[in-house]
Amino acid sequence: MKLYTYWRSSCSYRVRIALGLKGLAWDSIPVHLVKGEQRDPGYVAHNPSGFVPTLVLEDGTELVQSMAILDYLEAVYPDPALLPADPLDRARVLAAAHVIAMDTQPVTNVGVVGHLKATYGVDMQGGIDWMVHFMQRNLAAFDRLIAPEGTFSFGDSPTWADICLVPQLYNAHRWGVDLGRFPRLLTIERAALALPAFDAARPETQPDAE
Amino acid sequence: MKLYTYWRSSCSYRVRIALGLKGLAWDSIPVHLVKGEQRDPGYVAHNPSGFVPTLVLEDGTELVQSMAILDYLEAVYPDPALLPADPLDRARVLAAAHVIAMDTQPVTNVGVVGHLKATYGVDMQGGIDWMVHFMQRNLAAFDRLIAPEGTFSFGDSPTWADICLVPQLYNAHRWGVDLGRFPRLLTIERAALALPAFDAARPETQPDAE
To answer: B141 and A49 in contact by Cβ < 8 A?
Structure first.
């Protein structure tokens, strides 16, 4: 498989983690988001939204949207399971994952913050404040939706909740979110990054890291 | 079942459609988003994000996050199926649904636009421009990700893609998005709203509509 990816893209990071947990090998095709390569017509032909990641399967089939890619991987490579089998438990994991994948990342990504700055005259600090506001608000909700204890967000093995959390925490550290309020999330982050699949997916270990 | 809902909330609208398509009866518990009732501590105890919808099952179990609720309904009430069984087809439906559920609604909802106005001195028109920008951009991507023909986004029966599209189009009409560029989306909207489940879920037919 091949993955169009950017080292600091948290949606790419999610898919890198899932591929690693499933034991799948992949080649990196970097798309430089800060240079705007995601808007090149050649790339948009692969991904109409102009976003990363895009996963290219062995037969050339292309899949977009990180959570749809995770769903595909779960169906085709069920072992190890990254979602519970019970519908109610599964809905609880998805709800926590979606607090990040829906409410947080899309509101704070490079495109949205770039639009805020370019169109509304907001400066660098205003852009950072925007990101910190939504990350702080939503990490608090995530913290209340997960299980109160356990190695990971839900139990002793990683789920989509952790796969969404760890990349979001990378951004939260980067932009100065006060994470001291969320000791449980930091404990989960440490446990996750101790796993080889999470470690290998880190931004700073990617071939396109700067 | 009971649903904490707001007539104009597109995430509530999605769940209302899915409940209707599955033939499930539910009672409405309105939460007035414009009056800020979603921030009342009494409501936040049900939904830590302070968002609607929240689905209350017969036994009192509460589920949050519209797409997690859809997933639960799909697992427990599989007929009629609102997602394809084939993993690749399913990932394609999810990708289109997520262009709306992840990239569009969370960026243009009442809380985010309210924050833009309250914190960055943006006026009413600036808030509308923000919503229109992201809706237009993302509806174009949605239009390219769905099947080029068929009654609905993917084939001749509704899927999560349509369940996300129709509420988003309600907002797009409301805020003046140029939908003439998307004739296929308008055709799908007409076909969907001709179904009783979509019709009964419309904002203007809800008990809390103003």
So the answer is: yes
